Amino acid sequence: MRAPAAQCAATRVAGRRVFRPVAAASTAWTTDVTKRTVPTQLEEGEMPLNTYGNKAPFKAKVRSVETITGPKATGETCHIIIETEGKIPFWEGQSYGVIPPGTKINSKGKEVPHGTRLYSIASSRYGDDFDGKTASLCVRRAVYVDPETGKEDPAKKGICSNFLCDAKPGTEIAMTGPTGKVLLLPADANAPLICVATGTGIAPFRSFWRRCFMENVPSYKFGGLFWLFMGVANSDAKLYDEELKALAAAYPSQFRVDYALSREQKNRKGGKMYIQDKVEEYADEIFGLLDGGAHMYFCGLKGMMPGIQEMLERVAKSKGLNYEEWVEGLKHKNQWHVEVY
Ligand code: FAD
C-alpha cells in the first residue's frame, strides 16, 4: 500500500534512495551519538520470547525504507524502520519473524501462506527514535542470478526480502517473535564485546552499540571495550559507517571498528582480505581479551564460519592450545555466541 503523497517522500541522500515520511527525523546514519533519555520501563520483566506466533502475528506498519548501500556495492541492503507502538517488545540481539504476504504452492500441490523469515533486529529495544515505539531491520535484497546467462531472473527473487525492501511507508507487516537467545549481551556490563559480522550480520551489533553508547539506561552502564570486525566486499557495501565513525571519534578508547573489504584490501599474503584475515591481525589481543572474560559474537552468512574457525584453530595451535578445548571452555562460560544463516 502506498502512503498518501503528502505523508512520504522519495529522495536521494548521498546517492542512496530514501523513502520516509516527510516529518520523520530518523535516518540510518545518525552521527549524533550522545546518550539519549529512554523510557526505562522497557528494562523491567523477563526477556520477551515468541510473544506472537504464525497463527496470530502482530500487524505493524512500515515507517521508512532506506537503501544504505552505495551504487558500487555488491547487492542492495535496506534499513527498515517499523512502527510497533512498543507492542512487540524485544531485547538486543533477538530477531523478529516476518510473514510475507501471499501464498505459494507447497510440495503436496496445496496453496499455503508463505513461511516466516527471520531478521535480526538492528535497533535497540528503544528503536531508532529512543521512544520504544519502533524497531528496525537491516535487510539484504535477495536476487537470483542465472548461472548460465549471468542475468537476474526476477521470477526467482527472494520473496520476503524484496517485499521488505520494496515496502512503502504505511505497508502492513505481519510479524512474529521475538526469537533468539544466542546473541544476548552479557550480564556483566564491563565485559569486552568482540563482534564479528559479515553483511547484514551487523544488525544485532547495531542494537548492541546503541544500547552501550547512545542510551542512558541507569541499570546498564557499559564499561568495557566494544570491538567490531566488519566484513563486506567494498566501501560502498559498508553499513552504518557514519554512525560507526562518530562512535569511534567519541569513544576512542572504548570503541573500535576494523573492516575487511574483500575486493579492495589485500591480506598479509597478498590475497583478498576476508574477515578471518582481519581478525587474525589482532589474534594475540583477542585471545588475551577472551582469556580475561571477553564475549565473542559472530553473525552473518553461514559461509563466514569455516574460514574463521580454521584461522582460530591455527592461531590456537601456535599458542600451544587445543582449539576444541579452548572453544568448549568459552562456550561453557557463555563467552562464545554464533548466529549464522
Ligand atoms: P526466499 O524467497 O526464501 O528465497 C531464498 C533464495 O532462493 C533467494 O536468494 C532466491 O533468489 C532464491 N530462489 C528463489 N527461487 C529459486 C529457484 N527457483 N531456484 C533457485 N533459487 C531460487 N537476512 C537479512 O537480510 N538480514 C538479517 O538481519 C537477517 N537475519 C537473519 C537471522 C536469522 C536468525 C536467520 C535464520 C536468517 C536471517 N536472515 C537475515 C535471512 C532471512 O531470514 C531470509 O532467509 C532472506 O531474507 C531470504 O529470504 P527471501 O524470502 O527474500 O528469499
UniProtKB/TrEMBL annotation:
Its EC number is 1.18.1.2. Coiled coil: none annotated. GO terms for molecular function: ferredoxin-NADP+ reductase activity. Its main location: plastid. NADP(+) binds at residues 120, 140, 200, 262-263, 272, 300-301, 339. GO terms for cellular component: chloroplast. Residues 55-185 form the FAD-binding FR-type domain. Its cofactor is FAD. Keywords: FAD, Flavoprotein, NADP, Oxidoreductase. It is found in: Plastid, Chloroplast. It catalyses: 2 reduced [2Fe-2S]-[ferredoxin] + NADP(+) + H(+) = 2 oxidized [2Fe-2S]-[ferredoxin] + NADPH. InterPro entries: FAD-bd_FR_type, Flavoprot_Pyr_Nucl_cyt_Rdtase, FNR, FNR_nucleotide-bd, FNR_plant_Cyanobacteria, OxRdtase_FAD/NAD-bd, Riboflavin_synthase-like_b-brl. Belongs to the ferredoxin--NADP reductase type 1 family. PANTHER family: PTHR43314. This is Ferredoxin--NADP reductase, chloroplastic. It comes from Gonium pectorale.
